[in-house]
Each structure stands twice: as structure tokens, then as C-alpha cells.
């Protein structure tokens, strides 16, 4: 199994390219199932989860053709074509490895009139039920049953009717599932208290490029007028605001100066505002090469009080990275995790490196320390593993991060990107 070794203390500086967004890719790929025409996705990140989703699409009968790109390039172009669905089932074996597989439920149901999808089960960061996915799909006409660990879904008379649903709490995945399913429903659907994440805007824009009719994109009220069929399209996956936010924390924690290229500062509002509050200098850059964000450390980090929230609030997917950064702040910070009930698995690992953190319920108090020390640590989930990498970049001595397969799910060629801006980092394999 691979580990990542970091010898900390180097100040990071230079330009770092941001890849396409994992959480946009994982909802754009199933959208291809809604039509028998090809969907070409550009800037698709090379990540384990994206490969896993490709296998699931193949299993359903869709082809996935990768356009030749140089291996050195970040991202790639893939054309997905679901000419015919040869299966309408997402089996347990695939879904248990990648919960985002649940995002085929809406598209397969809309396309084939029926679908059978394994329940995803629990996850390291929380129970993560799918009840809202099911309620929203029922509201637009689906008939659902649970049997043997699977959701069995049917569209009476072979096509969803459309309908109205108000989410009791904001859910990214459930919003994505119902928006995709409603795109080809017989009637119009109205979704209220919908999630507003940029990845959902990306999905809606791609669906519109395929011929869908969606009003209210970017707001919490979406009106989707179903169309009879969607058409071929070519769409470029948005940049990954969470990857960019993670590297922005790398600049801050190492006293560095990074220009993150290819990312839109607009999508990173709450993250950049929090960095600024911590005393980091943040500037959007328009450099004719797709723009980006320059992040420069400017003296001691100031402590923060932060609560995670749905977009445009502070992202739960940035909580662990900020915690790592704030272990070195000049004072005590208070973090509250409101989205997932078990998203502090990184705390004991950071403590092994000398961090001073106390957790009580959903709140963590992080008292800044003078320095961290390298140690062997264990990754537990995607963002927790990034927080350990960040701590390792700042720590004195060597840090060894085990179970890096978590990282490969969401960070494209992390060691390459970090060593190009001055980090002393390498991946080793223990066979
Ligand atoms: C998406 O997960 C992201 N994953 C997550 O990113 C992210 O943390 C999350 O949104 C919140 O921003 C992908 O896009 C693939 P939710 P999702 O439905 O859709 C509860 C990462 O690190 N809920 O918005 O699963 C749920 O338990 C990952 O990249 C229900 O109760 O998140 C949670 O407490 C981790 N019933 C809250 O809502 C439901 O049916 C928000 O979950 C659905 C959700």
C-alpha cells in the first residue's frame, strides 16, 4: 500500500494548476445516461472516483471513450455514450465503494422507466441516508420500494410526470438526482430549498447545453420543464474549488505564496473570506491564462470562529484543511461541523503531530501551538487526509501518511503539484 512521505518546513511558492472538480464530474457523468446521444466532457479530473464512475456507466451499457491526451497533462476529455442501457442496476459491489453511485438512480429511472440501485450504507464521516433523494423522486412521480438492500424504482407508464418538492434540509446529491430526473419528465417540476453549490450550477448548465429547460439556476428554487429528449453536447467540467481551497491552505500554513491557476475566485467566496480573516492575502488574478487566485501568507495566522454550512456558507469539505492550518494560529479557534456528524477523524492524527484540539459534540476548539512535529499518521477519509498532508508540510521532520488511497479519490497527482512549488514530498509503496 502506498504512503506519502513529507519532510516539512519548506515555504511553497509558484504557480499550481487546479484540476476539474471531482464533485462536478460525479454528477455530470451520470447526466449522460439521460440521452442516447454522446456527451463529451472536457477537463475531467484523473481520479479514482472518476474511473470508478466510468466503470459503473460501462456496467449500465454506456461507452466511455477517452480522447488521447499526453500523460503529462492534467485532466482529460471523455465521450460518454449511452446508446442503449443494457442494465438498469447499480450493484452493491460498486455502490459500497463509491456512494456517489446513487446519482445514477434519477437518470436511469428517467431514461429506462425503472432502476435498481443498491443502498450506499454508512460512511466514515456520517450515516448519510438517502431518504431525501427518494422523497424528491417520489414527488416527481416515481414509485419506490426497498428490497434486499436495494431501491427498486419505477416510473408509471414509463415516464416521470414532474411535480413539486421542498427539501426540508439542503442536500447536494438529492438536488442533483431530482434535477437530472426532472429534465425529461412529462411535465414541469419545481424544486424548492434546493442546494446551490457551484457543482449544481455546472450540472444545470450542462443539462441546458443538452437541451434541458431549467429556470433559477444558482438559486434555491429550480423550475425544470421536462423535454422529450436531450441531445449531444460538449461540456467542460468546472475547476475544483475544494482542491484550490486546500492548496490555498498549503500556501498559508507554509508561509508561502502560490498562484492557483484555472480556478474562479467567485466559487470560493467563503473560503477566501476566511483566509483573509486569518490574515492571509488573497487576490484574484486575471493573467490571460484562465485567471486564478494568488494566496500569500503575511505574518502570523489569526484564529477564527467558523461553522460549516451549505453553499454559499463555509464548506464542510474545507473544515479539516482549515483545522490543520489553525493548529498554528496565534490563539484559539472554534470550528463547528453542522453538516456531517462524524467529521473529526483527523483530530487524533493531528494531535499525534503536536496539535492541541478538543472536540465536544460538533464543536472543536483548536489552540494554536508554536510548531508541529512530523509523525506516522493514518488517513481516514478524503479531506481528513489532506489536512494531514498540510500539517506535514509545516511540521518539523518527516511525516508519513498511510492509506493515501483516500487522497487519490479527490486530488489529482498531489505530490507532483506540491513538489513543483517547493515541497519535499514523495510517494512510497510498501508493496
Ligand atoms: C456532497 O455529498 C459531496 N459529495 C460531499 O463531498 C460534500 O461534503 C456534501 O455534498 C456537502 O457539501 C459529492 O458531491 C460527490 P448532502 P452529499 O446530500 O450529496 C443529509 C468530499 O469530500 N442527508 O448535501 O452526499 C446528510 O446525511 C465529499 O468531496 C439526508 O439526511 O451530501 C448530510 O448530513 C464528502 N438525507 C446532509 O444531508 C439525504 O437523502 C448533507 O448531505 C441526503 C442527505
**Small molecules (ligands, ions, cofactors) in the structure:** ligand EPZ
Distance between the termini: 6 Å
How large, in whole angstroms, is the Cα Rg?
A: 21 Å
- Poorly predicted parts: none
- Name the shape in a single word: globular
Largest sheet: 4 strands, mixed
Number of strands: 24
Q: Would you tell me the structural class of the helices and strands?
A: alpha/beta
Overall average pLDDT: 96
> What's the number of helices?
14
Quaternary state of this entry equals single chain
Arrangement of strands in the largest sheet: 22-23-1-24
Helix content: 25-40%
Strand content: 25-35%
Keywords:
alpha/beta; 4-stranded mixed β-sheet; globular; binds ligand EPZ
Structure characterization notes:
The protein is α/β, with parallel strands linked by helices and 431 residues long. Helix content is 29%, strand content 26%. The strands form 6 sheets. It has a 4-stranded mixed β-sheet. A hairpin with a 5-residue loop joins strand 12 (213-215) and strand 13 (221-225). Helix 4 runs parallel beside helix 6, helix 5 packs parallel to helix 6 and helix 6 (172-182) runs parallel beside helix 7 (198-209). It is globular. 51% of the residues are buried. The mean pLDDT is 96.
